[in-house]
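Workshop exercise sheet. Pairs work together: one partner reads the sequence aloud, the other fills in the structure field after running the prediction. Swap roles for the next sheet.
Pair: D.N. / O.F.
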Amino acid sequence: MTASAADTVCPVMVFAKAPGEAKTRLIPALGAAGAGALHRRLVMHCLRAARDSRLGPVELWCAPDTSDPFFRECERRLGISLWAQGEGDLGARMQRAFESALVHAARAILIGSDIPALSAQYLRDAERALAGGDDVVIGPAEDGGYVLVGLSHGDPELFRGIPWGGPKVLPETRRRIAALGWRLSELPALWDVDRPEDLERLPQEMRESFMPAAGGVGDPNASGTPRNRGGLS
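Structure field:
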């Protein structure tokens, strides 16, 4: 890629877990099949928003690896590329993704995969902030984390040792950005799907994606163990 091309292309990276590994908090409400169906619909929604933004290549960063058939389906249907998140905590995996992207591009954006209100315009607004000279752009999540982070350059300290999964994610990230002397832009806050009460906020077309599969609601074998949070927090 030439220097001029690197200045105009902004890869969009989408972090996603394999169905069955994500949205476990929703299993008591939807059953395992319903939670999996909703997860797939949300991932597809975020990938389409990334594609429609036309900012650059769309990369699906997969956990635990790229072998799940759903990820292959995304690759085939949407023409995106698959990448393995690899080992480590969320911060280490995010740092790895940015290091890969910023080798060939002047800026890059990373998003979660459970953001019903995500739009192509939201992503274009994030890229515009970076192109305008900001070092980092964040899309806050209503629960105290964030659903999007974009960088024009990286530093491992931004993600190292963050208390992922709690309300301190965003305040601590802001503190570190200030310590690095970076210029920050923040977008309007969005909500992500993490808890059963979030389901009431879903648009009807997304509810239809999991309702037929939710016959397992109340399945006594379903685990309600909160193994994950939404967004990138």
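Discussion prompt: The two ends are 32 Å apart (CA to CA). What would you look at next?
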